[in-house]
Design a protein that fits this description.
This protein is of the alpha/beta class and 289 residues long. The protein has helices at residues 8-16, 70-87, 91-107, 112-122, 127-131, 155-161, 163-166, 170-175, 191-194, 272-285; strands spanning 32-35, 38-43, 46-51, 143-147, 181-185, 209-210, 228-230, 236-238, 242-243, 248-255, 262-271. The strands form five sheets. A three-stranded antiparallel sheet has the order 1-2-3.
């Protein structure tokens, strides 16, 4: 049966002939439908759901040896287990998908005992309770953000042990009504060394400077190469950061080339180039906003 009136094959051939690496897969069924990570089946008048994964999915879960906090690693089998519990409506499908997931996790270094302990927590939940919407609770804890390293001590236990010391100050007790929330930011990794100049902030720091972009755009001949600027009252300021014609979101000034006085100060959320093209247009057409 062709639900598109016999034109499916012709439609199917068009995108598949565009490029040898582009392949469109077209499937339809009266019994099941695949959407995102769920396969929905119609069996004996009932709707059943199961996990769906594409053949190209390589299941590259975080390696257990990766430089991440322990709770992040433990959360992976826990979260994946909850996902299976929610999606699989049939117990046999749930058991089957769990065994498949167990194999993939062990390949990423997760131990059998760790997986067993974590999944025992998952199995305590009823599927119906997991499907119910739960409003997220807003935490009032003040975060302490640190750069994560394996050598760090157990910051959480230190914070809780020293909370009484912190509360000896009335001001600190008013601010920290409960223990601060310890959070971690990612440490610098090999990407900072290997990626190209534009995104590398370790070895290729750009100077504090304003200059033309060098692509001979309409703004290049008007922008001044400098590392400082002056306010309307003559006070000098140093430029912090690198600015050119394509910089987004900045405050700029227009200076008279004869008297060297600042005539106008403006701001833009677009690129400097886009904003000045609009200014050039208003000057040319003698219009205002």
């Amino acid at each position: 049966m062709d639900p598109w009136g016999g034109k499916t094959k012709k439609f199917f051939e068009i995108p598949n002939n565009i490029h040898p690496r582009i392949k469109l897969l077209l499937r339809y069924s009266t019994q099941f439908i695949e959407f995102l990570d769920i396969t929905t089946n119609l069996a004996a008048g009932y709707i059943k759901t199961d996990l769906f994964t594409k053949e190209t999915d390589v299941h590259q879960y975080l390696q257990i040896s990766s430089n991440h906090p322990r709770n992040v690693k433990d959360a992976i089998p826990y979260g994946l287990g909850l996902r299976l519990k929610r999606i699989c409506s049939e117990p046999e499908d749930y058991s089957k998908r769990k065994e498949e997931l167990r194999t993939r996790l062990t390949k990423r270094g997760y131990g059998e005992s760790l997986i067993k302990v974590i999944w025992s927590k998952v199995d305590k939940f009823g599927r119906d309770s997991l499907l119910n919407y739960k409003e997220s609770k807003k935490s009032e804890q003040i975060p302490i953000v640190l750069t994560y390293r394996d050598a760090l001590s157990n910051i959480h236990s230190i914070v809780y042990e020293r909370l009484k010391t912190l509360h000896k100050s009335e001001e600190m007790q008013r601010i920290f009504t409960q223990a601060p929330l310890v959070a971690f930011r990612r440490d610098k990794n090999i990407q900072h060394i290997l990626v190209y100049n534009r995104h590398n902030s370790v070895y290729y720091k750009q100077a504090n400077l304003c200059e033309p972009c060098g692509k001979n755009c309409a703004l290049c001949k008007h922008i001044q190469k400098t590392d400082n600027f002056f306010s309307t009252d003559g006070k000098e300021f140093k430029i912090k950061g690198y600015i050119n014609c394509k910089t987004v979101g900045l405050i700029y000034s227009v200076t008279c080339t004869r008297c060297r006085k600042v005539l106008y100060v403006g701001q833009t959320g677009n690129t400097f180039y886009q904003r000045m093209l609009l200014n050039f247009s208003m000057i040319r057409t003698k219009t205002t906003r």
